[in-house]
Amino acid sequence: MRNLAAMGLHFVKIFVPLVMALSAVALMLYFKESQRTLESLIDMERNRIVTEKAIVERNLQMVVSDLLFLSGMYALTEDGLSPETHVDSTRLGEALARFARTRGVYGEIRFIDDAGRTIAGVWADRGGVRSIGASDGMERFVREDYLHARDLGRGELLVSRFDLGSARGEARVPLQPRLRLIAPVFARSGKPVGRVLIAFNGGRLFDELRVRHVNSPGQIMMLDEDGYWMLGPNPEQEWGFMREDGKSLTMAVENPEVWSRIGVDGTGQFRDAAGLYSFDTIDPVAVAGHEAQRMFRVETAGARGLPGRTVRWVLVSHVPESVLAGLLSAQNRSYLFGYGMLLLLVSAGAWIVARANGERTAAYAELARTNDDLNTVVERLERRNRATVRINTMVDFLQACRSENEIFSIVASNAASLLPGTSGMLNIHNDETGLLECVASWGEGFCGRSLFTRESCWALRRGQTHIVARPGEGPPCQHFQPEPTTGAICVPLIAHGKVTGLLSALFPPDTQTMDQERLQRYAVTAEQHLVVVAEHVALTLSNLRLRESLREQSIRDPLTGLYNRRHMEESLVREFSRSERHGHSLSVILLDVDHFKRFNDTYGHELGDEVLRRLGETLRTLSRAEDIACRFGGEEFMLILPGATAGNAERRAEEIRSAVENRMKIRHGDQKLNVTISLGVSEYPAHASSVDALIATSDAALYAAKEAGRNRVMLASPLDV
What we know:
With about 725 residues, this protein is α+β, with helices and mostly antiparallel strands.
């Protein structure tokens, strides 16, 4: 028995510390393994986005290569492309048909002469390849792109935005996303003779992206620069800008916090409550331009988009938080099972202790390696995020603003720290005067005018950022007076296609001593910072104004322009509580139109509505700034008078009654119809002790005025104490 007890004590001395040590190690390994699993998924999603971006760019490069091949396919005659050269046009059409069948990714190819006539072309769809005749007109989207491409030079391309095209004004069904590119065609003499248009079938590209993403736990999305889905998890959300009922189907509207972090010029990853987002930006115009330069091997070659529009595509992979939680949950079950088995093995004998010690040593070594890897990743992320943390902080404050003055104050207090040494100004467009007014400024020595027209700024004229890195390197904006001695940048504030203001800044004086390369880097950084600020200021300002407009509409009666009953009830409760708290009077005037039903039955509801509108105008005209004029319901109105005694309210009521009787004449044909009103006045605390009683006593007074013959003011009976 003693030996058994000694063995038990010895077992306890070994088992308890060992279990404690193993528990600590298991806990650390669990957290590290969780982190490693999450980092592995993050790296996988990052690499997946990079691969899918390469797929999109490779498809775009292929289209550019084919377009330039077609533009130089034939050594054209001096006569160029024309309907009269029947043999050449026929041969050209046959070659295009063979090309379209071979490629299988083009929905439309056209050769167009300088007069805008189609010389040869093909349509390609699931039904096969069909020729386009000279009599076949161009769709609206194709015609608009062609007009913008008329001034293209040798080696230049025009890249449109992705759209669904149209057939007789409606999108084709099934949907056929199209990306159109146009290049000029020159004769052997160098004479421009026409253009070649190629429409890439984006549906196959989107199918390839879906197939590539099928093994990912995330959802693949592709959005344009306005946040519209071209490829999304929900087909009903896609191509909103092509539908009248889809203008609000954007990530910027449905998930503005995520869209503000993604933007249209960034690349990276972040995780929020909804899951993990990985994203990258594609500049199709830049990709097409680089491919054109590579093929022509001249710097003048390049591409451009439609005038006044920046085209960007954003690839996004979203792994929902539920998927991440599922991965970690599976790992939890694995660890719990393993830990339980380990405890059983430890309890079986002392020999497991040695083995556990060996495993612990190995685990610590792995922990050290994992920690080193984690430190490396953290250091890399800190370097990447340090440059944007100030902008993100400013954006967070902007999103929390509840008034325009708060927005302007945030810009003024943060702009100097974003670009040290600069001075600048924020101007907002005044719709009434048509001028841009200064609402915020920072720095010293800013030489901009506080009031100017849109014509004074190149950025506002062109609808894009205007930079003059060094005086003399570009045309200065006229609103800088006198002309600046350092570089300058102007960024328009554009939200939902409307210019709302301008953000302008002058570079620090020491930038003028920089070499060209350093100055260019500084200008690029300044542009990136100010563009982000301008986008968020414009969006925040637009959203704030929209919310205020919607709030005003929700509390106004549409017929009379007065506050509606819901706002009246809220205001009456609020003002009653304030009067009760401070011991002030609160009066209410309840009124309605005399014989209004008979008026409606005799002259019609349209004239009845005119009476109510005119009465609403009269109440607004005779109300003080602190008065609250409301439509109580039907032909009844209420005027809430904070701080007014019963005597003051009675005089105001008589003034209103007299104004209606003497000045409010309603025309009906050759007649002038008289309108009169009856009014009931009640006061807290003289006539009522609660909100309901205040309404009831004023209603009783109104009824008494009716009984006494109408067209009069009656005061409520005093409250019995």
